[in-house]
Amino acid sequence: MALFDLPLEQLREYRPDVPEPADFDEFWKSTLAEAGERDLDVRLTPHETDLVTVEVHDLVFAGFGGDPIKAWLVKPKGVEGPLPCVVEYIGYSGGRSFPWAHTTYPAAGWAHLVMDTRGQGYGNWQPGDTGDPYGTTGPTNKGWMTQGLEDPEHYYYRRVFTDAHRAVDVAKSLEGIDPDRIVVAGGSQGGGIAQAVGGLRGDLAGAMIDVPFLTYFRRAVTITDAFPYQEIVEFLSGQRLREDRVFATLDYFDGVNFAARGTVPALYSVGLMDDICPPSTVFAAYNRWQGEKRITVWPWNKHEGGGIHQRGEHLRFLAEAAKGA
Amino acid sequence: MALFDLPLEQLREYRPDVPEPADFDEFWKSTLAEAGERDLDVRLTPHETDLVTVEVHDLVFAGFGGDPIKAWLVKPKGVEGPLPCVVEYIGYSGGRSFPWAHTTYPAAGWAHLVMDTRGQGYGNWQPGDTGDPYGTTGPTNKGWMTQGLEDPEHYYYRRVFTDAHRAVDVAKSLEGIDPDRIVVAGGSQGGGIAQAVGGLRGDLAGAMIDVPFLTYFRRAVTITDAFPYQEIVEFLSGQRLREDRVFATLDYFDGVNFAARGTVPALYSVGLMDDICPPSTVFAAYNRWQGEKRITVWPWNKHEGGGIHQRGEHLRFLAEAAKGA
Amino acid sequence: MALFDLPLEQLREYRPDVPEPADFDEFWKSTLAEAGERDLDVRLTPHETDLVTVEVHDLVFAGFGGDPIKAWLVKPKGVEGPLPCVVEYIGYSGGRSFPWAHTTYPAAGWAHLVMDTRGQGYGNWQPGDTGDPYGTTGPTNKGWMTQGLEDPEHYYYRRVFTDAHRAVDVAKSLEGIDPDRIVVAGGSQGGGIAQAVGGLRGDLAGAMIDVPFLTYFRRAVTITDAFPYQEIVEFLSGQRLREDRVFATLDYFDGVNFAARGTVPALYSVGLMDDICPPSTVFAAYNRWQGEKRITVWPWNKHEGGGIHQRGEHLRFLAEAAKGA
Amino acid sequence: MALFDLPLEQLREYRPDVPEPADFDEFWKSTLAEAGERDLDVRLTPHETDLVTVEVHDLVFAGFGGDPIKAWLVKPKGVEGPLPCVVEYIGYSGGRSFPWAHTTYPAAGWAHLVMDTRGQGYGNWQPGDTGDPYGTTGPTNKGWMTQGLEDPEHYYYRRVFTDAHRAVDVAKSLEGIDPDRIVVAGGSQGGGIAQAVGGLRGDLAGAMIDVPFLTYFRRAVTITDAFPYQEIVEFLSGQRLREDRVFATLDYFDGVNFAARGTVPALYSVGLMDDICPPSTVFAAYNRWQGEKRITVWPWNKHEGGGIHQRGEHLRFLAEAAKGA
Amino acid sequence: MALFDLPLEQLREYRPDVPEPADFDEFWKSTLAEAGERDLDVRLTPHETDLVTVEVHDLVFAGFGGDPIKAWLVKPKGVEGPLPCVVEYIGYSGGRSFPWAHTTYPAAGWAHLVMDTRGQGYGNWQPGDTGDPYGTTGPTNKGWMTQGLEDPEHYYYRRVFTDAHRAVDVAKSLEGIDPDRIVVAGGSQGGGIAQAVGGLRGDLAGAMIDVPFLTYFRRAVTITDAFPYQEIVEFLSGQRLREDRVFATLDYFDGVNFAARGTVPALYSVGLMDDICPPSTVFAAYNRWQGEKRITVWPWNKHEGGGIHQRGEHLRFLAEAAKGA
Amino acid sequence: MALFDLPLEQLREYRPDVPEPADFDEFWKSTLAEAGERDLDVRLTPHETDLVTVEVHDLVFAGFGGDPIKAWLVKPKGVEGPLPCVVEYIGYSGGRSFPWAHTTYPAAGWAHLVMDTRGQGYGNWQPGDTGDPYGTTGPTNKGWMTQGLEDPEHYYYRRVFTDAHRAVDVAKSLEGIDPDRIVVAGGSQGGGIAQAVGGLRGDLAGAMIDVPFLTYFRRAVTITDAFPYQEIVEFLSGQRLREDRVFATLDYFDGVNFAARGTVPALYSVGLMDDICPPSTVFAAYNRWQGEKRITVWPWNKHEGGGIHQRGEHLRFLAEAAKGA
């Protein structure tokens, strides 16, 4: 992928006008308030594995609408608590995978809560186990990008972001977890979700947001042909008259608007050759983040930019966050 | 596409053992009975267009679960009734499109009822307008093939086939339509739906089933990489332990099992180079059809086999059906 | 297809200098005059189909050089005449297809004359039936874009545009057709042909020009890799020294030069993500059209932009044209 | 390309029944006789180049119908004559290229006559300079495979094979060329042409037939998706009712039928992974060749099998042929 | 990927004749003996990370020819030793990655030694850090498959397998590691290496061999076009006369021949749709393995078959191995 | 390939700042001096072919480090000497091919020395026969671009350029060759090598540099995704921290820096649609060349731009060079 987006110097200063609905805060406030009326209903089931230095629980909690959301909770044994905790969200189409996929943060002394993304989870590497018991009132494209797009109230990510927000509440409620040292994390879709949660709450010890998806939709759909953003373009190519409503809905979910509210310490990453989450969309959000922040720029990477190398940055960030708390 | 499936001579005799659930008939009987308890609730709204030789109505009826299903009803003006009627189902991801896309059967003297496929309808050429207000209890792949696959009761196509079955009831109930001359029709997914309805009811004047999808799933997923069958393979590549349940569910929806019950006159088509709906899957069903039947074999065609050339065969079949009734 | 061409605001004002041969008018005047010396030699054969609300004729007329050009004439029955008539031209590699593919305009009360494009017509969906009895004096690429490119007199489209021009004469000559209400129409190559005829004659009730091909060749070959424009690039990559002659020939056939002469009411369409007929080439022509005009801009569409949605615009345009005459 | 065709042991014995028209010999006899009534009309123009050890002429002769066919004649200087001569035909879409591309056979002491393939010649590497002044009476696909396919009399390759046959007459007529030592040669389409000429004449010193195209059409179109054979499949996918006529025509041009008549020494090559000219089609012809023969089997090669390595085999074959005469 | 290889029932019985060099054992005996003359020269450097429940060392040892080979050694803290140890080899083009990528086996109570593959290691996810200070005496293709292919002594994998064999010696020599409980492991190329080491030594507690590469070369190169096997085909397409020598060399490195010598407990995995390491090549080896064995068959998976799901099988196998010792 | 680089007017003036190491001249001076201490050790073996107007020798000489480098020497017979000589370098992955591939320059009266590129040579069309007996000290990507990239001393092209430089010394040393009329030549990688040699020596009669590779690396890796430049991007995507060193090394091998030193007459070619060696990288070097120069601009060509058409330009250039000397 040749460099197809803005040059790095421009990216560093990039602050486009992204439409923000007048009632953006109200929308999320009432969404979360409504959700908050339900009990978290956390069910923790010890899950036997062949792992010995960690303790695994199958965790189910009541997400948006009280729907059961599955997660793994993996905690290091023999580390003195209360433990700091990473709450992680997953990339598009994946799920919480298996407990043995989540041993790195525990090895760093952190509890690790990995939440399923409702309805998703067919992925080879990250199968999930959580349904999304909501249908749609109108036509959709394949995939999740266009589920309920006709209306912010019914848009798929309203449910997902609410689940994600509550997953932090869950973490805070757990015995042996230090509620003051919760860090949200994720890459791609998971990064978009972490960014949303990071923007919505000020009570986190940090947010690790890698190559975030769900950010500056209006630009993304015009500068890349890559999926999943392309699901929106395909939808509009057939549902040609829904354009205004589609973008009016998306504005409530745009990562730029969440980032503009972010006050906790943030660690971002971006790949300058990333055509799935183009760098200008990432910087549009990053440059708005209000809290302490840094961004790792991977000049020669596509979407894998936020991968195993960045994991080293995570550990450093977590070490600071663990201390800082 | 080179010839990748069985040679034609073998296809003509191809009668593989396709598993049939012991309670297949019971399943569908109770499904339809339950649906039948609800009123069809047909709402016909005259729809103004610039067309003058046809009369167009926006038709909404209560499908599975009473959900509103949209359709177009296009009737020729000045043709003496009661009119015979084609009830058409749509290919994967498409919808009912626009009234002006449905003038051919009316030009042949038939009323034309084109039903949306719930939830689908982003397609460029065939946008739809009907949602599917059901979610899932487990993880899914993108697309509709894996929605509710964990269980025949909740599988997506249970709702669709029920809608389709009721669309025939709707047609029969309409003033000016001859209830004894209803023909179901469709290509690809639409062909699979027409085949299911054709197998479930003996009160039709015919079924036109082009390059049907949703037929012999167990073989299809092993001989082609093409979508949408591939959605199932992808799902199983991640949800590796669900294989038995997946196929146990699909057996309730397999076109071969519907075809084995088909008694009305049928017109099939097949493309010998069709990798989306491979010819052996089509013949596996066709060879089981019990009613009067014929199949148009297009040796040099892929999935487009059931296209504009086949439309000529349709008109001939309809002319016979119109007389025959 | 990400947005790869100029932004919409610039497209709306885009008026590039496209070279126009000094003898452009003379070339076409003499071409048509020479053709006009031959009788149209219209042969109308009633064609039996299973359609009942329309009357179908197989129509053959003498095109360029007196060569037999095939067409379908489909007329609504029971609509009081004389009838207005759409003369339609076909997209690249297709042909007149089958009569049952042409029932929409008749359903709107219009006669529909669909002309084969000589030599073309292998297409799955639109088979044709007309040869092109001319060879070439020099080497060519596969396809029609480079047939006779060495010289405007022998260029393939000189014959095609002449056929198309005469098809209007044919329509005007038919009994029961209102010669004052002829509208030319087409998409892609058909749009390019309709644009040429629309520019060459002032006696039409309108021109419906969808995503036109054959327009601003000099730019098209540098901003897209898509076929058929790419046929010219491939040709020049081997016939490297013919560049000047190639473009000198193409200037006589450039849609921009035809559009600059267009005085009848025109309806255009354009897809902003269309890489086959890039939007700047379409606007380069549209912005020059002198007659009353409007353009439907489909922001999320590629070349399918001029498809089934646009058909609704056609019907509205025709309704106006029918009245206006 | 994995091995997709028959295994080598079976290929060595492969002798399928390929339909041969009853009047095959008569067809070619009368075709050549009719052509033979015209003078060869050889025009040799010295062509100045910067080459010093060879002498180059631009050669034009009257091919089928008397049409001017261009060729290069490249002769070694300082080699005592009369010279043996290779008459070479060119691969699909290419032409005679430039004189400096033809110095190898002259370096081996042979004159080299390279004939344009009429109408073709856009290729990057092998531009041509000869038109084909014949059109068609019916629809065609892009490319040359379907030009005049409706009828053996008008099929494109009737003209090409006649040109090629006459090119040998031309070579034999040239001063300084030994008429008893003419070898025809070519790869791919050129191989198909050399095979046809080799089958039609017994007065050659040999035929070098590399990875021949135009051979066993009926099988080729079912076992590979590759072009140019695919042009026929595409054509039939739209012109579905022409199948019988198409193959009836092709039988007159099938390399297997020519090979069955071949009596001169032949050198073949084949690539076992060649999907453009699949090995079974090559062996179907080779196994029928009646003259002395050998075949170089390149097990790991696709269509490039007949390339630069095979050139070494050519030189050995020519050395024998030169002596043998 | 449709099922393109043998059906599962046949795979279970598949025991093809794979050529084995007469001096296979001698070749490896002398290779290892020669290598064994050098000291292992293990250098362990504590490597600081932000991980707290594991201890990380940068490990360098003298591999083939005494060349420095890098590895990570990751050990669980607080687990009573001596520890069992997994020695892992890496997939094609990857390297040892980062310490934080190797926390799963330590979480299961195992030490984990991850060896670089010399010369490789550009991979996004698994960068390495070890060169291969050997050149070639003949031409090569890109990649490692053809490095030194002219001769078993100089073939690249002679060096790699020797490194891998010695890595086990290294593990056994480490303080705190139980020399009787070493398991070798790897997927793809890593699986091929583990299989070679597993076949060469009887002193292991087990071998975990996922979707092994480097196995039944002679068949692999004919049934798949996928890389890296394709590197060999490409090489032979140009170096056409080296075929015999190439395969004579590869026989010394063929996984089937190593498997035939395997006596330790083995856990295999295979994906039935794996076109990179086709299932018949895997079963050809697996069916020869002499020790206790089991294979996980993933019917719906391609090369990812040996991935995260299989990791669960690993943990079970390791738990048994840990006890068994 | 649409025009993706700068427009031609800008290319003609394009003179970017390309970093030049301070010790660039010193680096090459010492490299060549060190190499020069070894004897050329030319071994000429008459090579029998079936060619009669040329004389072929298999030539081996001591290249960098004294390694044996193979070449063909093809000389015209019967041309009065001493002969001028073209020294040709080969494109990426190819080798010296076969003697019969090198008859054109001899036909023009020139001796032709074609040098293998060490280690390369798997290519279908241009097999080679020379190894590269050097390994690496660090990880690499597949291919040659990243071999030894950690350090200018060990970079692969240091060896290749030295070989190439010495090949000229070899040519000059040969009996019957005129040491004052040596022209270096090559396309793509061969063009990059010829450019380097042309920049390093003032004693040539000319340099023919077609579509040169290895030129302006820093830009090339950001404007094209094509290989081989992409090998560097891939490498950096995994070896993310080596960026500075990588480019610091490449600066010693950048064609722009060699061109800036070029004083002999040069003939360049460039394809304006060349995505493998983008036109701006070619002009960046060409515009710096200090000697007499011209460039053939092929506007409609990709990387094949420097092909058979350009060969005609070569012959003209050589004719001048032959005289000029």
UniProtKB/TrEMBL annotation, chains A, B, C, D, E, F:
One of its GO terms (biological process) is polysaccharide metabolic process. It holds the Pfam family AXE1. Residues 1-319 form the Acetyl xylan esterase domain. The active site is at 188 (nucleophile), 274 (charge relay system), 303 (charge relay system). One of its GO terms (molecular function) is carboxylic ester hydrolase activity. InterPro entries: AB_hydrolase_fold (IPR029058), AXE1_dom (IPR008391), CE7 (IPR039069). Substrate binds at residue 92. It comes from the Bacteria. This is Acetylxylan esterase.
